[in-house]
Amino acid sequence: MKKVAVLGAGSWGTALAMVLADNDHEVRLWGHKKEQIDEINTTHTNKKYLKNITLSEGIVGYTSMEKAVTGVDAIVLAVPTKAMREVCQQVKQYLSTPHLFVHVSKGIEPDTHLRVSEVIEEELPATVREAVVVLSGPSHAEEVSLRQPTTVTAASSNLEAAEKVQDLFINQHFRVYTNTDVVGVEIGGSLKNIIALAAGITDGLGYGDNAKAALITRGLAEIARLGSCLGANPLTFLGLTGMGDLIVTCTSVHSRNWRAGNMLGKGMKLDEVLENMGMVVEGVRTTKAAYQLSQKLQVKMPLTSALYHVLFDNVDPKDAVDELMSRNKTTELDDLSQLLGDRFSS
């Protein structure tokens, strides 16, 4: 049995706390809202994020960061990307020895263009981190909390650390693979939210399965194009954290990003959508970061560019789709070679 702190009591943090509790670990679930933590400790529910789910009594809620992280073996960072720096700054005040950090956030920081693991490494000194591992894959919290079959990937440049995380989480319902391609895993997990927003828009506009299939396929090509430029293994994008996560996020009503895009496609403005959602929509922030990065690296990302202009320049979604469909003719094979890697190209 290990002692694990899960920082972030949203839907995903709570679902992962359930997986850890099922594996007989001592779980400390930290959140900053006293009412929510009181609910977790008294009624063993977290109704705002996971309706009709009863939590194990082995999950104990904390509002004190110091009490949550003192004496634990591992720390799971399950907060939105925009809160990651602040939470890391709080955590390091109470640590004096190296700890295993697991992050489950999917995004790229605007302006700095850093991946989440890079943000964590920038904020946490080497004296308090044994390793940083990213846990990612096609995994809706709602289904994980119901113990429905789910598979994810634990990625780290330190394979031993990834295997430790694999051992922490793996069970009959939650299968964990390992990978050493941190760049590919993080880029795939982040950029799929952009494509899911776009998929929601096409559905909101009333377009059909043809459009959805094209969007997912061309979206994967964009993800691989930017990821490969950043040093990722192209084959990672064919796995759980690439194609797997892309499919589930673009096709499920559980997806916040799909739901937000669907509202945009139906004519709502971005501010209205975000207010209506009441939860973080990571794809909005990531679209800005990915667009900036594509401009900086001169990587062609037409879907990301179109979505950026819809979100931030008030371009009408239908006009954006029409412009995408009217672009100059091109070939598909170059993108397939990029996706499969040089070893498969002629």
TrEMBL record:
Keywords: Cytoplasm, Lipid biosynthesis, Lipid metabolism, NAD, NADP, Nucleotide-binding, Oxidoreductase, Phospholipid biosynthesis, Phospholipid metabolism
Annotated Glycerol-3-phosphate dehydrogenase NAD-dependent C-terminal domain residues: 181-321
SUPFAM superfamilies xrefs: 6-phosphogluconate dehydrogenase C-terminal domain-like, NAD(P)-binding Rossmann-fold domains
Major enzyme class: oxidoreductase
Positions annotated as active site in the UniProt record: 192
Keyword set includes Ribosomal protein: no
InterPro entries: 6-PGluconate_DH-like_C_sf (IPR008927), 6PGD_dom2 (IPR013328), G3P_DH_NAD-dep (IPR006168), G3P_DH_NAD-dep_C (IPR006109), G3P_DH_NAD-dep_N (IPR011128), NAD(P)-bd_dom_sf (IPR036291)
Subcellular location: Cytoplasm
Binding site for NADPH: 11-12, 32-33, 49, 106, 141, 256, 280, 282
GO-annotated molecular function: glycerol-3-phosphate dehydrogenase [NAD(P)+] activity
Catalysed conversion reaction: sn-glycerol 3-phosphate + NAD(+) = dihydroxyacetone phosphate + NADH + H(+); sn-glycerol 3-phosphate + NADP(+) = dihydroxyacetone phosphate + NADPH + H(+)
Keyword NADP: yes
Residues in Glycerol-3-phosphate dehydrogenase NAD-dependent N-terminal domain copies: 3-161
One Pfam family linked to the record: NAD_Gly3P_dh_C
Pathways per UniProt: Membrane lipid metabolism; glycerophospholipid metabolism
EC code(s) of this entry: 1.1.1.94
Entry binding sites for sn-glycerol 3-phosphate: 106, 137, 139, 192, 245, 255-257
Main location: cytoplasm
Family of the protein in this entry: Belongs to the NAD-dependent glycerol-3-phosphate dehydrogenase family.
General function of this protein: Catalyzes the reduction of the glycolytic intermediate dihydroxyacetone phosphate (DHAP) to sn-glycerol 3-phosphate (G3P), the key precursor for phospholipid synthesis.
Protein name: Glycerol-3-phosphate dehydrogenase [NAD(P)+]
Annotated organism of origin: Sutcliffiella tianshenii
Taxonomic placement: Bacteria, Bacillati, Bacillota, Bacilli, Bacillales
Gene name tied to this protein: gpsA
